[in-house]
Write the structure tokens for this entry.
Amino acid sequence: MRSTIRRAEREARRAGKPRVRPLQAIGTVAAVGALIAGVAFPAYAAIQSDTEAVTIHDVAAGEAQSLVVASEVESPELTGSSYAATTPEEIAKAEAERAAAERAKEQAEAAKAAAAAAAKAQSSSASVASAPSVASAAAPVFNGSFGSPLPGGSYYISRSVGGAHQGTDMVSPAGTPIYAVASGSVVTAGYSGAYGNLVTFVGNVNGSSVEVRNAHMSSIAVSPGQTVSAGQIIGYVGTTGRSTANHLHIEVRINGGLVDPVNVLPI
Ligand SMILES: [Zn+2]
């Protein structure tokens, strides 16, 4: 009886002994390594080909002369005319707009941070209707004739044309990029009394002469005589000159006549 129990115990110990010998262990490691390689490398290859597919898409889109702004920066209000580039001028314009949108995209993060700080500061002021929402701040918005002077969602309008006030005030954080609302050439780029740092440019939109004044900039990004494209950065929001808060004061004249920017710009 006792010897039977001992035999059973011996057998149990044998059964419990690790059966993997060193050579087998090396074989197991090699097998697992092969398994990892088999799974991981095709997956890595898949990631690589995805990246290439995006690049090819972008190149193809560029060659097809279509604007790829919408897919890249989530600009919500692009019109059909933004895509329909058929003449060399339109293609160049679309390219400029796309490049501007890409630059804006890079600056959007900085603008968001500045806007968050400004919104916090403004929340204590009773005269402020609402803080600017920058959730969708990314790029200028185009309406077929003009672009917006500030990134969509980065501002609110506090005042427009009325009485002696000949422009629209767009409250936005200091440093927010200001875009040319149309293509043209820079007439004024410098400090100008009550306007502070002012950029005035003249262009031609749908056969009409357009003059645009952009005031109170913190800094100016263009020079007199320089050609600008719609959507190109011409300066940054500030509060220079006769101004009490960071904002863009923008005036638009069409064929010499003052117009209310809110009626013609996509703002
Ligand atoms: Zn103003």
Notes: The pocket of zinc ion is lined by residues 165, 167, 169, 249 (CB under 6 Å). DSSP finds six helices and eleven strands in the chain.
